[in-house]
C-alpha cells in the first residue's frame, strides 16, 4: 500500500472532516484554518488528484451554479483504502508519541 506524505495526510483528513462538502476551495480553507500553513489552491488540487490516482479518494461532479458562472464543483470522498491509510498513519504516529519520555512527564503533570 502507498504511504501518505504529510500534505496528503492533511488533505485526506480535511476531506474526511468536510464530509459531503469537500471540494478544492473548501479543503484549502479547512487546511488553512487547522494548520496555519500557507498552501496554494493549486497544491491542494494537485494533492487531491494524486490521492484519487492512488485510490484514496473518489470524486464526482456537482451541479452547475450561477455563482460559479455555470461551472460545476468536483466533490471528493475518502475510499476504504483512504481511510485505511489514515488509520495506518495514525497508528505510526501514536507509536512514536509513546516512545518520547519527556512527553510522558509533561502529560503526567497536566
Can you put this structure into words, describing what you see?
α1 packs across α2 (24-35), α1 crosses α3 and α2 (24-35) crosses α3 (41-53). The protein has helices at residues 6-18, 24-35, 41-53, 80-98, 101-109; strands at 57-64, 72-78. The chain has one domain (6-109): Orthogonal Bundle (Arc Repressor Mutant, subunit A). It is elongated and about 55 Å long. With 110 residues, it is an alpha+beta fold. 22% of the residues are buried. A two-stranded antiparallel sheet has the order 1-2.
Please give a handful of descriptors for the protein shown.
single chain; about 110 residues; alpha+beta; Arc Repressor Mutant, subunit A; 2 strands; about 15% strand; elongated
Shape by Cα distribution:
elongated
CATH class: Mainly Alpha
Low-pLDDT stretches are none
Query: CATH topology, what is it called?
Result: Arc Repressor Mutant, subunit A
Radius of gyration: 17 Å
Q: Report, as a whole number of angstroms, the end-to-end distance.
A: 38 Å
